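Quick question, first post here. What does this chain look like in 3D?
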Amino acid sequence: MSDTDIKQTVLVPIDAITVVNPRIRNQKVFEEIKANIAELGLKRPITVAVRETKDGSEPNYELVCGQGRMEAFKALGKSEIPAIVIKASSEDCLVMSLVENLARRQHHSLDLLRDIRRLKESGYSEREIAAKTQLSTKYVQGVIKLLEGQEHRLLRAVESGKIPVSIAVDIADADDVGVQTVLRQAYEKKLLRGGRLLRAKRLVEARQKHGKGQATSDSRSRKSLSVESLLKTYENDVEKKKMLLRKAHATRSEMLFLLQSLKTLMADENFVTLLRAEGLASLPKTIADRLSHAESAPT
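> Answer (accepted):
Ran it through. C-alpha cells below.
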C-alpha cells in the first residue's frame, strides 16, 4: 500500500462496515483485545475500503484488516471506530486482508487454505497467489490440488500441522501400496518422525477405510437425530458404563485378594527371613501404605 493510498484517520460507523473475509477468533484472545482497548484505547486504527452509494447517501465500507478490534469496539458499546479509509476493489481487499493475517499466524491455518481457494476462484494464477501471499508456489499448488480433490481429511491434517502439505499431496496421488512408500520416504527425509509419523499412519488408515472425509459444513453432519437413534445412543452409553463398573469391581476384588495374600505372607517369619536374606528388608512405600490401611480398616 503506497502513502498516497492512505488517508487521515476518520470515525466510521461500525454498522456501515461489511466483513468480506470473516475470521473465527479464539474467545480468550478476543477478550484480551477487548480488555486492552477498554483500558488503553485503540492503539492502531482499522483499515477499510470505501464503497460509494448510488443514491448519494452515506457511503458503506469493506473491512481490509482489524476485525478483532472492530468487534471489540462494538462489544464495548461503541457505534463508531477510527479507521484509515482507502480506495480498493473487493479482490484487492481480500488480498490485503490475507497478507495482513499472514503476518500474524502460521501458514497451516484453515482460513489461509480457504483464502487460497478464493483467490484461485477469483482468477489469480498459482504464481500470482504465491507472490501476493509470500508463500512458495509449491505450497500453493499443493493446497489447490488438495482442495480440488476434496481431500478434506488431508486438508484438516495440514491445517492442524500434523503433516506437511507436500506429504499430503503425495498421499493423495498414491495408491494404497504407494502410500507406504510415501511414509517411508518421509521418515527417511526426517519430515515425519515419532508421534507425527504415528498420526500420519492413523490418518492414512482412516482415509483408506472411510474415504477422503467430508467438509465441516456437510449437511449430513447437522442431521437431526430421531427418537429411536437417541434411545439407542443412550442404551449404548448405559451399557458401556455398566461394563466399566464390572471391570472396576473385578479389579478391586483382585487387589483385595493380592493384599490379603501379601499380608498373610508378611506374617510368616520364614518368608520375612527369606526376604531379608535377599536384601529385601522393606516393602515399597505404596505397598506398605496399602497394607497398613488394610490392617487398620474394620473387618
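The chain has three domains: 1-90, 105-216, 227-296.
The CA atoms of residues 64 and 92 lie 9 Å apart.
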